[in-house]
Each structure stands twice: as C-alpha cells, then as structure tokens.
Amino acid sequence: MEFLSVGLCHNKPKNRCISRLFALDYICTQGDLALIDFIKEIPCEPRVEVVLIDDAFVERKSMECLFQPNAYLGDEVIDCYINLIKAQKHLKCRSGGRVHIENAFQFNFLKRDGDVEIKTEELYPIEDMTQICSAERRVLLYLDHDMVFIPINIRETHWYLAVIHARNMEIQVLDSLATSQDRKNLTDSIKGLQRQIDMISQRKELKDHRWPNLQVASWPLREIDMGYAKQTDSSSCGLFLLNYIEY
Description:
The protein is an alpha/beta fold. The protein has a domain at 89-246: Adenoviral Proteinase, Chain (3-Layer(aba) Sandwich), CATH 3.40.395. 33% of the residues lie in helices and 16% in strands. The protein is built from 7 helices and 8 strands, in the order αββαββαααβββαβα. The protein has helices at 30-40, 75-86, 104-113, 120-123, 129-143, 184-203, 237-246; strands spanning 49-53, 56-59, 93-94, 97-101, 147-154, 158-165, 170-174, 221-223. α6 links the parallel β7 (170-174) and β8. α2 (75-86) runs parallel beside α7. The longest helix has 20 residues, at 184-203. It starts with 29 loop residues before the first helix and ends with a helix. One of its GO terms (biological process) is proteolysis. Residues 56-247 form the Ubiquitin-like protease family profile domain. One of its GO terms (molecular function) is cysteine-type peptidase activity.
C-alpha cells in the first residue's frame, strides 16, 4: 500500500468580522501543478491510497475523476473535502445555529436503517453493543446541533444536500438540478434516523438536547430555490453539493 504525504490547506476565504462570504476561484500554483503531475504518474490500481485527511482515504483510482472533464465525483473525494470543511471553525455555526456536517459514508447506514422490511433487532442485535453504541453516539451528536447536513447520493449518478433543520422542524433539500424528483433516498434515511432515535430513547432518556421534538420523520420536506446556483451540465452536482455545504 502506498501513501503520499501532502500538506493540504483550505483555500476558501475565512470569516472574521464580515457577515458574508464570497466564493473565489482558486488558482493553482506551480507547486500545485507539479503535485498534480506527480499524482497522475501513480499507477491507477486498487488499494493505492494517495490522500488521507482525518479518517478519509482517497485511492489513486478514485482521484481519476479529478483529472477528467465532466467526470462525476465519487464518495471518497466528497468525504475528504467534507473533512476539510469540517476543520474550519467558522463554518460550525451558521445563521440557523450549530451545524454538524455528516459524510457520505454514514448516509448509507441511515438509508439502510430506513428499510421497513428489516427489523430493528436484526440491524442492532442486543449482543452487538458496538453497533448500538455507534448509533447512540450518532443520535446524541445530531441532537446536540441545530442543523445536520447530509450529502445524498442517488445511485452514484447525482448528489444533493439535505439539511435537517431542527429549529424550523423541517428537512431542507438543496438540489443543483432544481427538480422535485423522487426523494426516496432521503425519506429512507430520515426514517432510518427516526429508527435510531427511537431505539436509543428506549435505552436512555434523551434530554437536554437542542431539538424541539424527536419526531424527525414527521417533519416536512422543503425544496429550497437555489436561484442562480444550479448546474447546467450532467456532472457537476458534486461540486455544487460541496459549495452548498460550505456556503
């Protein structure tokens, strides 16, 4: 297994005394271009891990989407950039309150738990305390924030952002295609979260949290009009997702 140690930094403007942030195009330096050329020379083979940001790895083959025009961003790339966003302290509080940004990997667990055909005791057998404790940590983490950002991946063809907005008791949808398409992936993940909340609430009293109520599955979906921030091609949804998370 190969690794490339890279000093990574976040190149977006930092929020200090201003109330609005404006996206700026990042211009690659000569050092950046040299690094890109170096990465391109690495064999595009399985299990060749090139980037590690916190707990998110990116294999060389998963980085190929960054070098090809009109390529769809995979979840490894999305999760690594999300970790960069999460490292920015000024992005942890927004106008709607405290924010937790989830990764694409956890979305799969939420969606799995939303399958009504599978019983809770099958998903979380009482003898498997590791899974139960993991679900409890996730539930308590969400309840300690006013908003939870969840990247939604539709069959590896489209990304959009869902925001659990506790203060408004609604689920907001930010979609760069600006279409009210089937939201089954989202509704399943919210049902999965509700199942986890119900399971944990049976084990312990959930109090001193920031949510008005715990019936998140009953909160309405609201499609947000993204105005000019919409994609005009078939592949840039991942970039729009990351910008929605960041701004």
